[in-house]
Amino acid sequence: MGLGDKISNKAQEAAGKAKETLGDATNNEKLQAEGAGDQAAAKAKQAGEHVKDAAKDVFGK
């Protein structure tokens, strides 16, 4: 995984956490759900990148 991808994914995850926290504080269920969704998407991207990295290690490509 490239450094740019790592930074982008972590930024998306942090923004999602901020949205979720703000939604909790304001009792805004839509914002809470959006934040949770952003975090889940970022984590899924990170997992996919880890799989690609592992495959490169195994197959040497």
Can you give a write-up of this model?
By secondary structure, the protein is mainly alpha-helical. It has one domain (3-60). Helix content is 90%, strand content 0%. It has two helices and no strands. The longest helix is centred in the C-terminal third of the chain and has 31 residues, at 29-59. The protein is elongated and about 50 Å long. The two termini are 13 Å apart. The mean pLDDT is 91. Belongs to the UPF0337 (CsbD) family.
| Low-confidence runs of at least 5 consecutive residues | none
Shape label:
elongated
Overall strand count:
0
| Mean pLDDT score | 91
Determine the number of helices (DSSP H or I, runs of at least 4 residues).
2
Helix and strand string, N-terminal first? HH
Pfam family, one: CsbD
Biased composition (Low complexity): 33-45
Biased composition (Basic and acidic residues): 46-61
Organism: Arthrobacter livingstonensis
Give me a quick take on this structure.
The chain is 90% helix and 0% strand. It has helices at residues 3-26, 29-59.
